[in-house]
């Protein structure tokens, strides 16, 4: 990772849009990576910095870039429970059903961690409920495993409606 990429990632982490503008105007690629494969957009999303995420997307950041484990910004937003970030990513074209290294999806993260507002958002945007991870489990299975009754209800209603 070069110094400018490091500065861009630090600006994304803190939400410093002025610094992001300065660094990207100097020609620094917006999809540079750190030692774990995190891009500035992944970092901005994971740290709930919607203005920084929006600016990075407007500057050409790949909304589907994944870290070295296959985790995307959308997966991070669903893990952390950031509905505004998830909406931004989805309306910017993020792949809703992408799978990380173990086959998990954004919907699976939302189901596992009780992020039921995100389950609703993902279903509204067309997330596939029946995808299985490397263990053969679906988002519905993971919600049940975690005792997420509301998540189960939301996904079952999705099945009933389709």
From TrEMBL:
Keywords recorded for this protein, A-Z = ANK repeat, Repeat
Whereabouts are the ANK repeats?
Answer: 36-68, 69-101, 102-134
* InterPro entries, per the entry: Ankyrin_rpt, Ankyrin_rpt-contain_sf
Q: Would the keyword Repeat turn up in this protein's UniProt record?
A: yes
UniProt xrefs under PROSITE patterns? ANK_REP_REGION, ANK_REPEAT
Q: What is this protein called?
A: Ankyrin repeat domain-containing protein
Originating organism: Mucilaginibacter conchicola
């Amino acid at each position: 990772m070069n110094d400018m990429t490091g500065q861009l990632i630090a600006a994304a982490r803190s939400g410093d849009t002025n610094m992001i503008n300065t660094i990207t105007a100097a020609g620094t690629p917006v999809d540079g990576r750190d030692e774990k494969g995190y891009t500035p957009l992944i970092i901005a999303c994971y740290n709930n910095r919607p203005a920084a995420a929006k600016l990075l997307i407007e500057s050409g950041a790949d909304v589907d870039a994944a870290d070295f484990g296959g985790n995307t910004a959308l997966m991070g937003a669903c893990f952390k429970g950031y509905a505004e970030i998830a909406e931004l990513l989805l309306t910017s074209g993020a792949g809703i059903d992408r799978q990380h290294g173990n086959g998990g999806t954004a919907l699976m993260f939302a189901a596992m961690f009780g992020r039921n507002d995100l389950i609703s958002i993902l279903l509204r945007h067309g997330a596939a409920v029946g995808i299985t991870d490397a263990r053969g489990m679906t988002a519905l299975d993971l919600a049940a495993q975690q005792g997420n009754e509301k998540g189960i209800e939301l996904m079952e209603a999705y099945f009933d409606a389709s």
